[in-house]
# Entry
Amino acid sequence: MDTLHIKGGKPLTGTIPISGAKNAALPLMTAALLTDGEMHFENVPQLTDVRTLIRLLTELGCEAEVGNGSEETFGKSLRLKAETITSTTAPYELVSQMRASFWVLGPLLGRFGEARVSLPGGCAIGARPVDIYIKGLQAMGADIEIVDGYVHATTKGGLKGANFRSSLVSVGATHTLMMAATLADGETVLENAAREPEVGDLAKCLNAMGAKIEGAGTETIRIEGVSKLQGTRHPVLADRIEAGTFAIVAAMMGGPIKLTGLVPETIEAALSALRAAGADIEVGEDWVTVKREGERLRPVNVVTEVYPGFPTDLQAQFMSLMTLADGPSEIVERIFENRFMHVQELARFGADISLHGDMALVHGVERLTAAPVMASDLRASAALIIAALAAEGETIVNRVYHLDRGFERIEEKLSACGAEIWREKA
Ligand code: EPZ
# Structure
């Protein structure tokens, strides 16, 4: 298995182009199943999760072709055409590798009236049930049975528009139900819907395909079903989690680092926490510059919330930053029940963190020292890299395959700013 090596303590300055978002690309790609027309995506990040979904889509009969991309952002174009689907079964081997594969349930059921999709199971950060997806599709008239670990969904004469209020805000259920509803008969109203920017990006693409969706980005989404959707061209939204991660790196190391090609308002919660920690932030139309001068970081409490609150996907990275703050900070995780696996690994750098239910209490220390560490999930891996950049000595990060699921060329981007970071191939 590959390892990442990082020699900490180097000043970092420069410009980092932000890639297309994994969490926008994945739902967009599943939307290709809604049409027999050709979909052209641009700015698609080259990540393991994207490749896993391409494998699933081709297994279902979809044509897929990765084209040239931009030298600047590294993203590639991707052509998908689901003209003829040869299977409506998403197998365990692929869905268990990546939960977002489960989202094919909505488009398959909407277009073909049938889908058999493996239950994803739990993962390192929590149990992650799919009850809301199932209740929402049942409200639209689907018959759903769970057989042999698979969700088997069918409809008699297609899905019907429905009013559905979700018991909690779920990004994946919102994507899935919104896609299913585009081809339902009549109007669907999704209440307590996720407002994450990736939901808005998916709705934008679906509308360009001929869907009639209003209100994406608010908690009530209205979808007037249409009989057919066509192919379109769509650039993938910039990755707010990648941008937030590099903003945290800049605050940790001092910067200045300029992040380009992003939508600054999508990382406002993170930027305001960084300002409170002592960072100076300049915001342009599609760029952000982060720097920090002077004394130690100030401690800042954060609570993870649904968008526009502080994102759970930046919790580990922010905790890493707070390990060097001048005082105690409280980091509360409200979205997932087990997203603190990085705490023990951060302790290996000399961080002082104790866990109290859903709250991590971080007592800032004056310095971190390098250590061999193990990545436990995607965002936790980024937290370890942030600690390693600041730590004295050489850190070795094991299990970097987690990182390759969601951060495009992170070593290259950090090296370009002066970091001493390299990968050793197994
Ligand atoms: C998406 O996961 C993201 N994944 C996650 O990013 C992100 O952490 C999460 O949203 C929250 O922002 C992608 O976009 C591919 P949820 P998703 O359904 O949709 C509970 C990353 O690192 N829930 O909004 O799976 C669930 O257990 C990842 O890139 C139910 O109880 O998240 C969780 O506690 C990890 N029943 C909460 O809701 C359901 O039916 C929010 O989950 C569905 C969800």
Summary: Residues 23, 26, 99-100, 126, 128-133, 168, 170-173, 312-313, 335-336, 378-379, 406 surround EPZ (CB under 6 Å).
